[in-house]
Amino acid sequence: MLETRVAKFSVALMMIMIFVLLTNEVTAARCQVSKISYAYTQYAAPAQQIQVNTTVAGSCTSNGDDYYSVRVDLVDKVSKSILSSSNTPIGYNAKNFTVTAKNGATAPSRNATWPLLVYVYVIRAGGTSGIYLFDYTSIGNATVQVGAVPVPEFYVSSEYPAMFLLAISGLILSYRRFREEHE
To answer: Which of 42, 43, 60, 102 could disulfide-pair with 31, CB 3.0 to 4.6 Å?
Structure first.
């Protein structure tokens, strides 16, 4: 009796798996990005406006039915907040493209090393699919030094001068004793 139940369950499970596999559409990413480069100032004054230019080059399998664009989000790495977003059109023919997205942000108001993340998406919209699809995603890093780099302070402990004087005194006494013995 148990064997029949297991057999029925196995057949039912296989039927469900076949149904799921036959009814779901599996598609591969249609875009390949060959190069992403970032141009930004590496030093900024506190509260200064900066701009990050992200150049994206690549190609998509495109028959002209779908519209493509590049979205770039500039994100503060510490707080994870989106500082700015830009959407740059590629167009309907995305077989070979190079676009530059511009994102602006305001530097922190204090001296610090400011780590940023740059999220890059190639988006396919409309056409035959009728929905928005991410055909490519990438995350890059950028770092901006805000204000002056902190200089480490030179700290001398109060024991060091006393140890120095003790060492000098010992050398002087040794030298005197040496001279007295060899005169």
So the answer is: 60
Instruction: Report which DSSP code applies to 28.
Output: -
CATH number, residue 57? 2.60.40.150
Domain membership of residue 61 as a residue range: 28-146
Give residue-wise pLDDT tens across range 80-132.
999 999 999 999 888 899 999 999 999 999 999 999 999 998 988 865 555 66
Nearest alpha-carbon partner for 88 in 73, 101, 97: 101
Domains in the chain, number = 1
Instruction: Identify whether 142 is part of a domain.
Output: yes
Q: Please name which of 41, 50, 70 lies closest in space to residue 58, comparing C-alpha atoms.
A: 70
Instruction: State the Cα–Cα distance between residues 143 and 115, nearest whole angstrom.
Output: 5
* Contact status, residue 133 vs residue 124, Cβ threshold 8 Å: yes
- Evaluate the CA torsion angle 164, 170, 171, 176 in order and state its sign: positive
pLDDT along the chain (183 residues), means of 10: 65 58 52 91 94 94 84 93 94 91 95 93 70 75 86 64 76 80 77
Query: 29 in helix, strand or coil?
Result: coil
Q: Is the dihedral of CA 38, 41, 45, 48 positive or negative?
A: negative
Note the Cα 113 to chain centre separation in Å: 15
